[in-house]
Structure formats: structure tokens, C-alpha cells
Amino acid sequence: MNTRPLVSFDWAIKYLLRDKANFDILEGFLTALLRQELRILSLLESESNQDDRLDKFNRVDLLVENDRHELIIIEVQSNREIHYLERMLYGTSKLIVEHMQLGDDYDQIKKIISVSILYFLLGEGETDYVFHGITEFYGLNNHSRLELKKHNKAAILGLEFITAKDLFPEYYLIEVEKFQDIIQSDLDEWIYLLKHSEVKPEFQAKHIQQAKDKLAVIKMSPRERQAYERFLLNRMDERESIESAKEEGREEGLKKGRKEGHYEEKLTTARAMLAENLDIALIAKITGLSIAEIQQLES
Fold first, then answer.
1. DSSP E strand boundaries for 191-272
2. DSSP secondary-structure letter at 4?
3. SS3 109
4. 283/299 Cα distance (integer angstroms)
5. Do the beta carbons of residue 113 and residue 165 sit within 8 Å?
6. Strand, coil or helix: what is 145?
């Protein structure tokens, strides 16, 4: 049974999900990922959350605040980036600084949750497709976890005590292409949507059927459809440029290899001629090597 086409999730984050009326889609996705009920209070702006519709982009940032006053940054990355983890760390660190006012006490620091939806393979060898990174402190001797019982944020969060996990940035990495389309959880239903831009009728994750309705291409206005088509063309151009650059690099490598191989053949020929005690000038004329290069072979 064919379902009606849905817009890609990176487009939705850039344009549709910025509308408060569509926050339920983000809430459903984040509830499945974080395994806790949450409500989005607002969409926030930062230097990494600007909306420039003229840009050709391969990265999408969306920054929201939930009802626990945590900041959640959602990023879609289409193309491989070697130093992606370093950029994640920089992004969360910068966000902490952006939301601190001069003179604020340290207890005003916001908890940051970073969610990266990756359409390239970041790691090698592992078979999982969702990864979670936290900071915790454990004793070197008895391996007990450090718990801060008397802490203002414990009361704010409704906890008896807090740990470093409740304060330090938290990271989620979703490697979409590794997902094998085996549905075992609500989160898997959302990742299926991320991978195929499709919601099956039997999916039951929170708000996912609303996502199916709101992300339907058929419901776009003519202006939205034109913008979406431009986005898809821009993304195709980006991928074509990357593939062209890769092909040029491979061809340049082959040319260099052939050139180096030809040079090695000349050196081999020159060594053989030197072994026959032929004149260096004659060897240079036959092989095309310089006299200096041939003299180095004698040493």
C-alpha cells in the first residue's frame, strides 16, 4: 500500500516545525528519543539558529526550550564531516555562553541536549544506529557515582538529588542510514520517518500520525511547494558537487600514481644502465632523467 509522500524531515525542521502549531511533531519525536514526556515552550534564536531562506544548506539547526527549561538543539547533517564531534562540543559550549548574562550566577547555566540526525556514517564497526553520550563522575576507588543532594536545581527539576548528567550537555546521535527498518519501539517509527519520509498506518508513536498529516506534500500551498522543490534541487546540486569533487580527487590520485610509477620505471632503467657502466650523459638522454638524479643513484 503506497502512502502519500511526505516532505523530508530536514526541510520540515527548517520551515514547518518552526510554527508553534506544529510543535506536537517535535514533542512526539523528542518524547520517543528522550524517553520522557515533555512539552516545548518556545522556539529560541541563537547564532546557530538563524533562518536564511536564500542559503544552500546541508545542515539544519533548530533550538527549542522544553517545560524543564532545558535547551534542545536539533541538527540534521547530510554530508560527512570529519570533525563532527568537535563541532558538536563547540556548539553546545557556545550555546551555554550565549544564554548567560554578564553577572549571572553559575546556577543560571542551562542544561543543553544536542540531537544530531546524521545521513552519513560517523562511526565504523558498530551495529547500533542511536548513540547517547553523558557526563558522569565516579569514584576511582569504589566506583560510586557523585551525587549532589543539596542543590537548587534538584528542587527545580523535582529531584531529591542531581548528578553531573543533570547539569552537563547531553548528546544523541542518530545514524539514519544504519537503521534496518525493523520496528521495535516508538523511536524506531520516528527513525523510519526520518529515513523514508513515510509513516505507516500501523505506527502508534505519540503524534506520529499527526506528523503524517502535517508533513504531507499534497497539503502544501503552491508557494511552499515551489520552495520545497528548490530545496530539493539545491540538495541535489550539493551532493553532485561533493561527488564531482570526490571523482576529481580520485582522478588526480590516479594521475599522480601513474606519474610516480613512470618515474620509478625510469629510475629502474637508469640503475640497470649504470650497472653496465654506460655514460651518464647517454643515460640521461635515453631516460629523460637529469644528470643530478642519475648521480644520486650512484651514491
1. none
2. P
3. coil
4. 16
5. no
6. strand
Domain assignments of the chain as residue spans, ordered by start:
9-219, 239-298
- The bridge status of strand 71-77 relative to strand 112-118 is parallel
Which residue positions in the chain have pLDDT lower than 50?
1-2, 47-48, 51-58, 254, 257-258
C-beta neighbour count of 119 within 10 angstroms: 19
Helices 291-298 & 222-275, crossing angle to 10 degrees? Answer: 60
CA 155 to CA 157: how far, in whole Å?
5
Q: Which amino acid is at 256?
A: K
- Cell representation of residue 223: 508557494
**298, 278 Cβ separation under 8 angstroms:** no
| Amino acid identity, position 195 | K
Instruction: Please tell me the predicted confidence (pLDDT) of residue 218.
Output: 60
Per-residue pLDDT of 202-243, as tens digits, reads 999 999 999 988 888 766 677 777 777 777 677 666 656 556
Contact 119, 111 (CB under 8 A): no
* Cβ-based burial of 154 (10 A; exposed 0-12, middle 13-18, buried ≥19): middle
Give the model's pLDDT for residue 216: 83
Nearest to 75 by CA among 103, 101, 49: 49
- Region of 79 (left: φ > 0; alpha: ψ -120 to 50; beta: rest) is beta
Instruction: Dump pLDDT digits (tens) for 173-199.
Output: 999 999 999 999 999 999 999 999 899
Calpha distance 64→42 (Å, rounded):
6
With a CB cutoff of 8 Å and minimum separation 6, the contacts of 166 are 111, 153, 154, 157, 159
Cβ within 8 Å of residue 174, ≥6 positions away = 33, 115, 116, 117, 118, 129, 130, 191, 194
The pTM (predicted TM-score) of the whole model is 0.72
